[in-house]
Amino acid sequence: MSTKQHALSGLYAITDSALLANERLLPYCEAALSGGAKLLQYRDKSSDTARRLSEAKALHTLCQKYGARLIINDDMHLAAKIGADLHLGQKDGSLLKARQLLGPNAIIGATCHAQLELAKQAIAQQADYIAFGRFYNSQTKPGAALANTDLLEQAQQLNHPIVAIGGITLDNGSVLIQHGANMLAVIHGLFAADTPVTVEQRARAFSALFTD
Ligand SMILES: Cc1ncc(COP(=O)(O)OP(=O)(O)O)c(N)n1
Ligand SMILES: Cc1nc(C(=O)O)sc1CCOP(=O)(O)O
Ligand SMILES: [Mg+2]
């Protein structure tokens, strides 16, 4: 497993149940990891506990193969059950409780929408990264609050790893990095693809944005 510091920079791939239906989940995620994704978030809004557990376990094994980290969205108990990391939104439970449950080595991230104040609160509650969004038109979350690059500049003063999310593509991602994003979290811009080969090519190209 990679260290926290190593993982908190680069491409952050997020799964989508519709885009990755029909047996696409594992091959498409493997393609993203092979292309260099450092974090993979399992984002599944269903209540099918058994399927969620088996998919999360399979993704965790894949992440370990590629030295990446698996982040579970919303569900601290599933993360604890399989020894994975966690992302919490503002209504998904307490960051401090999650830290107690998962321990100091777990990566725990927090949604901060477009508000610096939420980021300060998340850091005070031991979040490892702060996530701002949405930056562009998002097919996944069209109604999310809009963030901008001024916010990224202001967030630099917090000296904490920053994730940008929302409508990010290969064409619009690099400007967010220039303004201070340490990670780009992507669903459609990565996984809306006809083949895993395309996903891997995109993941490589996203990863290259961080070294250019
Ligand atoms: C990296 C990252 N940033 C933000 C979110 C959004 O979390 P939330 O507001 O809880 O919304 P849902 O994703 O749960 O619908 C995220 N998942 N990941
Ligand atoms: C899950 C999520 N959270 C957002 C936020 O602004 O907090 S935007 C978003 C959707 C990201 O998917 P896509 O890359 O397809 O736009
Ligand atoms: Mg959530």
Automatic annotation (TrEMBL):
<feature type="binding site">
    <location>
        <position position="111"/>
    </location>
    <ligand>
        <name>4-amino-2-methyl-5-(diphosphooxymethyl)pyrimidine</name>
    </ligand>
</feature>
<feature type="binding site">
    <location>
        <begin position="41"/>
        <end position="45"/>
    </location>
    <ligand>
        <name>4-amino-2-methyl-5-(diphosphooxymethyl)pyrimidine</name>
    </ligand>
</feature>
<dbReference type="InterPro" id="IPR013785">
    <property type="entry name" value="Aldolase_TIM"/>
</dbReference>
<feature type="binding site">
    <location>
        <position position="73"/>
    </location>
    <ligand>
        <name>4-amino-2-methyl-5-(diphosphooxymethyl)pyrimidine</name>
    </ligand>
</feature>
<dbReference type="InterPro" id="IPR022998">
    <property type="entry name" value="ThiamineP_synth_TenI"/>
</dbReference>
<feature type="binding site">
    <location>
        <position position="92"/>
    </location>
    <ligand>
        <name>Mg(2+)</name>
    </ligand>
</feature>
<keyword id="KW-0479">Metal-binding</keyword>
<dbReference type="GO" id="GO:0004789">
    <property type="term" value="F:thiamine-phosphate diphosphorylase activity"/>
</dbReference>
<keyword id="KW-0784">Thiamine biosynthesis</keyword>
<protein>
    <recommendedName>
        <fullName>Thiamine-phosphate synthase</fullName>
        <ecNumber>2.5.1.3</ecNumber>
    </recommendedName>
</protein>
<comment type="similarity">
    <text>Belongs to the thiamine-phosphate synthase family.</text>
</comment>
<dbReference type="InterPro" id="IPR036206">
    <property type="entry name" value="ThiamineP_synth_sf"/>
</dbReference>
<comment type="pathway">
    <text>Cofactor biosynthesis; thiamine diphosphate biosynthesis; thiamine phosphate from 4-amino-2-methyl-5-diphosphomethylpyrimidine and 4-methyl-5-(2-phosphoethyl)-thiazole: step 1/1.</text>
</comment>
<dbReference type="InterPro" id="IPR034291">
    <property type="entry name" value="TMP_synthase"/>
</dbReference>
<comment type="function">
    <text>Condenses 4-methyl-5-(beta-hydroxyethyl)thiazole monophosphate (THZ-P) and 2-methyl-4-amino-5-hydroxymethyl pyrimidine pyrophosphate (HMP-PP) to form thiamine monophosphate (TMP).</text>
</comment>
<dbReference type="Pfam" id="PF02581">
    <property type="entry name" value="TMP-TENI"/>
</dbReference>
<feature type="binding site">
    <location>
        <position position="167"/>
    </location>
    <ligand>
        <name>2-[(2R,5Z)-2-carboxy-4-methylthiazol-5(2H)-ylidene]ethyl phosphate</name>
    </ligand>
</feature>
<feature type="binding site">
    <location>
        <begin position="138"/>
        <end position="140"/>
    </location>
    <ligand>
        <name>2-[(2R,5Z)-2-carboxy-4-methylthiazol-5(2H)-ylidene]ethyl phosphate</name>
    </ligand>
</feature>
<feature type="domain" description="Thiamine phosphate synthase/TenI">
    <location>
        <begin position="11"/>
        <end position="189"/>
    </location>
</feature>
<keyword id="KW-0460">Magnesium</keyword>
<feature type="binding site">
    <location>
        <position position="74"/>
    </location>
    <ligand>
        <name>Mg(2+)</name>
    </ligand>
</feature>
<keyword id="KW-0808">Transferase</keyword>
<feature type="binding site">
    <location>
        <position position="141"/>
    </location>
    <ligand>
        <name>4-amino-2-methyl-5-(diphosphooxymethyl)pyrimidine</name>
    </ligand>
</feature>
